[in-house]
């Protein structure tokens, strides 16, 4: 190597040494911090399983579980995740990571960011413009250091991640400024550990009158992850509400229920469905008249088909229906067309919700 080349390298070496010194000095400072962690329940959760829209279990972990997981952290990770520490800029191992994949919580494994939203912010910390799922990243107002900032924390274990600022790129305009030590990177294609995978879900379809009400009620059933209003059972592709209202598309106002089979069975959903509407009303439900308001169960497979038919037959023999014929049709599910946005979560947005009675 020529002398000129070595001369050129000297400033780079000095910068590298400087950054290393900053990393070490900062590390020492952070050790002396004694900020407490976000409070967490001590006992088992009594709120049931909490799901994120993307299908992950985000039930808050207990203090005991967090303490167990924390045993596997390095002192630096412990300082950042549990004591709201900050790693020095330019030091993080994931700052320049450009590989495709998922960034999960270092403590509990919940996916927090995708490589598709990572960008070079020039700040020295890994930066993202959108979380993997907004329900996975908590935003907490933070007045520490004498300035108002918004802290970010993992929704499942409440570990500190970094901060979010409103000077990010499009489309969100947000900059999630993260500590590398708070994240675990999983390259695309690699098998994710169980704690970083979505739960295994199942789907069921029900039609029982106005879909606003059926959707709203299923949303409240424990074990249901999501309920979506739509159109099903007809012969017109891509129908819109106006067409279905006219009653000649063959479609029923239906609801797609995504559920966690480990928490609620298909049979239990069938039972709820019969509590949510009057299955003896043919092609109507209360004041709503027309085939679009018929009572129907659209089965996703032969197992559901058999179970639903058996359920309806058994219900017919109960005292509730002994003198009234059940009109519910059970048939294989065809294409489900999601309804327009203004029909989704209608009761949640506009009120008028019919709360599920615990007495059933
Ligand atoms: Zn976590």
Describe, in plain words, how this protein is organized in 3D.
The protein is α+β, with helices and mostly antiparallel strands and 360 residues long. The protein folds into two domains: 32-196, Metal Binding Protein, Guanine Nucleotide Exchange Factor, Chain A (Beta Complex); 202-350, Peptide Methionine Sulfoxide Reductase, Chain A. The chain has helices at residues 3-31, 63-70, 75-83, 211-219, 241-245, 266-276, 302-316, 346-350; strands at residues 101-105, 111-114, 118-119, 127-128, 137-142, 149-154, 160-165, 175-178, 183-187, 202-208, 224-232, 252-259, 284-285, 288-289, 295-299, 329-332, 337-338. It has a six-stranded antiparallel sheet. Strand 1 (101-105) and strand 2 form a beta hairpin. Helix 4 packs across helix 6. The longest helix has 29 residues, at 3-31. The site of zinc ion (ZN) has 8 residues, from loops.
């Amino acid at each position: 190597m020529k002398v000129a080349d070595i001369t050129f390298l000297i400033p780079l070496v000095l910068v590298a040494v400087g950054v290393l010194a900053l990393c070490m000095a900062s590390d020492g400072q952070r050790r002396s911090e004694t900020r407490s962690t976000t409070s967490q329940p001590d006992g088992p959760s009594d709120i049931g399983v909490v799901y994120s829209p993307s299908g992950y279990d985000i039930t808050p972990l207990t203090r005991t579980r967090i303490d167990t997981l924390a045993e596997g952290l390095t002192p630096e990770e412990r300082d950042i995740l549990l004591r709201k520490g900050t790693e020095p800029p330019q030091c993080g191992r994931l700052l320049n990571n450009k590989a495709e994949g998922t960034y999960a919580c270092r403590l509990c494994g919940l996916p927090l960011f995708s490589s598709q939203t990572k960008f070079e912010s020039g700040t020295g910390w890994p930066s993202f413009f959108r979380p993997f799922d907004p329900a996975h990243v908590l935003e907490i107002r933070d007045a520490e250091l004498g300035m108002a900032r918004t802290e970010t924390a993992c929704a499942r274990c409440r570990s500190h991640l970094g901060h979010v600022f409103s000077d990010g790129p499009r489309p969100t305009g947000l900059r999630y400024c993260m500590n590398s030590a708070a994240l675990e990177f999983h390259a695309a294609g690699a098998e994710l550990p169980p704690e970083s995978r979505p739960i295994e879900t199942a789907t069921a379809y029900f039609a029982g009158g106005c879909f606003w009400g059926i959707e709203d009620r299923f949303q409240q059933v424990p074990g249901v992850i999501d309920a979506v209003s739509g159109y099903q059972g007809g012969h017109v592709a891509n129908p819109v509400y106006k067409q279905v209202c006219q009653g000649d598309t063959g479609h029923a106002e239906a609801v797609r229920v995504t559920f966690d089979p480990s928490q609620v069975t298909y049979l239990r959903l069938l039972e709820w469905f019969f509590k949510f509407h009057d299955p003896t009303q043919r092609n109507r439900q209360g004041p709503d008249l027309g085939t679009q308001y018929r009572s129907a169960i659209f089965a996703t497979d032969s197992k559901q088909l058999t179970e639903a038919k058996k359920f309806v037959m058994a219900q017919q023999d109960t005292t509730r229906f002994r003198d009234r014929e059940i009109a519910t049709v059970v048939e294989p599910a065809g294409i489900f067309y999601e309804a327009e946005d203004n029909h989704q979560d209608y009761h949640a947005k506009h009120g008028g919700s019919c709360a599920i009675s615990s007495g059933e």
